[in-house]
Write a structure and sequence with these properties.
Helix content: 55-70%
Strand content: 5-15%
Structural class: alpha/beta
Low-confidence stretches: 1-15, 17-74, 459-472
Number of strands: 9
Number of helices: 20
Largest sheet: 5 strands, mixed
Mean pLDDT: 82
Order of helices and strands: EHEHHHHHHHEHEHHEEHEEEHHHHHHHH
Strand order of the largest sheet: 4-3-7-9-8
Shape: globular
């Protein structure tokens, strides 16, 4: 991802200018851009990789770095805080090496302000790294920063890692990483989301002693800078996406949205087909679309394309926005979902649905016994969102009772989770309990006024059926 595309400036509009994987409820404008991507490698997958960097560039890296901070305790056991701090330092050094290698390949320089940013992350200087990132962001937005257009991928990812290390209690961070990465089978591709824990699997995947999984984010597949970065990291292990495929995904979405717009204009008294939060209009004879729903739909098409191009790989998803087209061939996998399962009827039974509910009950018990964690803390919101995603999957496979149980467990884990609240409300509304659903939504909005049903949640609550369904 010449054809209108989501612009870099629009996709950085929320969550401190993360890629579209930052949970953006604000509008994202789809505009005309041209993506310049390197050629993809097509070699088979490998259990470990050097992240697209020459071996000489990493020879003094992770092992030496780990040894350095491990020795700081003079043989004593490290605390969780020291472990996480050391891993963030290690990650920052590794991504600086990758940044330099990308700069060499794409014939740009690594400016001093980029070096200062990585140094601040490595040293754990929170205020300094934030100031350094804001300065980089302003320079990039000035339109005179070719180097940042190339190197933005590792910069943003390193900021993301620093935020997770800063915002999460250290032991909870390590536990979350074990829960997600520990559920993967050898060779699995991890498809991450945009939640408070979105950077943790990347951090632990890159700094642990086990297999280096391919880790991608579902919400950045329509972003050209991310695709360049993805190809640089994994082009020798997976078939990544091309410019043409990104353009085709947009055209497919645009064509479908145009049909829905024509329906709404031709039949104004019928239920609207344009989705809540999706702005489709004709400007100067051209169709334009804005909104997070549009980006979500394009990324869903691109994820399907990515999976089709890599048929021999298994995929595990930590869902950000519901990707309904993946549900028919998805099954629970620990806290995640395994995608592209061929024999779903035999592998996704009522017993396995019950096992999924039990998994979340056990997880909820851990949080309920921890009275120090607030309902809207990053760990509780992250786990609640994953539980709600599996509840939606259970409902899609007609395990209604188990889906309701999973939703209610998600609400227990975090009463502040909009995914849990609106997901449960939707399930209740579709099973003849509309009044209970209305009361649940009213109670949630009263208790959490800052988490009112923004358009994307109305879309999810309505099951994607439109504004009238959401109101009903």
């Amino acid at each position: 991802m010449p054809t209108p595309r989501p612009s870099a400036s629009d996709q950085e509009s929320s969550s401190r200018s993360h890629w579209p994987w930052g949970l953006a409820i604000g509008s994202v404008l789809i505009v005309l851009v041209v993506l310049l991507l390197p050629r993809q490698g097509t070699s088979p997958t490998a259990p470990r990789a050097t992240n697209g960097v020459e071996p000489s560039a990493v020879a003094d890296g992770t092992g030496a770095e780990r040894a350095r901070w491990s020795r700081s305790r003079a043989g004593a056991a490290l605390t969780p805080e020291e472990i996480v701090a050391g891993k963030v330092t290690q990650f920052a050094h590794d991504r600086l090496r990758i940044t330099r290698s990308m700069a060499s390949r794409f014939k740009v320089s690594v400016a001093p302000d980029v070096e200062r940013f990585f140094a601040a992350v490595a040293a754990g200087r929170w205020e300094e790294l934030n100031a350094a990132f804001e300065a980089l962001k302003q320079r990039r937005e000035s339109g005179h920063a070719e180097d940042l257009g190339v190197l933005w991928g590792p910069i943003l990812e390193t900021l993301l890692i620093a935020e997770c290390g800063h915002d999460w209690p250290a032991q909870k961070l390590l536990d979350y990483g074990q829960a997600t990465l520990g559920s993967l089978r050898p060779g699995m591709v991890y498809v991450g989301g945009t939640d408070p824990g979105r950077g943790i699997p990347t951090l632990l995947n890159e700094t642990g002693d086990g297999e280096r999984h391919v880790v991608i984010t579902q919400n950045a597949l329509a972003d050209g800078s991310y695709l360049r970065y993805l190809d640089f990291l994994y082009g020798d292990r997976v078939k990544t996406l091309t410019t043409e495929e990104s353009q085709r995904a947009f055209q497919d979405y645009l064509s479908e949205a145009q049909k829905r717009l024509a329906h709404d204009q031709q039949f104004p008294d019928e239920p609207k087909q344009i989705r809540p939060g999706e702005d489709v209009r004709v400007v100067d004879g051209r169709v334009q679309v804005t909104g997070q729903i549009a980006v979500m739909a394009i990324n869903e098409i691109l994820l399907r394309t990515f999976m089709t191009k890599n048929p021999d790989l298994a995929f595990a998803l930590e869902e950000s926005f519901p990707l309904k087209s993946t549900y028919p061939n998805a099954v629970p996998l620990g806290p995640l979902m395994e995608l592209g399962v061929q024999d779903v009827q035999n592998s996704f039974t009522r017993d396995s649905a019950a096992q999924a509910v039990n998994y979340w009950r056990d997880t909820a018990q851990q949080f309920l016994s921890d009275t120090a964690a607030s309902a809207d803390s990053a760990p509780r919101l992250s786990y609640a969102k994953m539980a709600a995603a599996q509840a939606a999957l259970l409902a899609d496979h007609q395990y209604g009772a188990e889906a309701e149980q999973a939703y209610r467990v998600a609400v227990q884990i975090s009463p502040a989770s909009p995914e849990a609240a609106y997901g449960l409300a939707r399930l209740l509304a579709t099973t003849g309990r509309a009044e209970e659903a209305r009361q649940l939504v009213a109670d949630f909005e009263r208790a959490h006024p800052s988490k009112d049903p923004a358009p994307v949640w109305k879309f999810i609550y309505s099951g994607g059926r439109g504004e009238e369904a959401a109101r009903r």
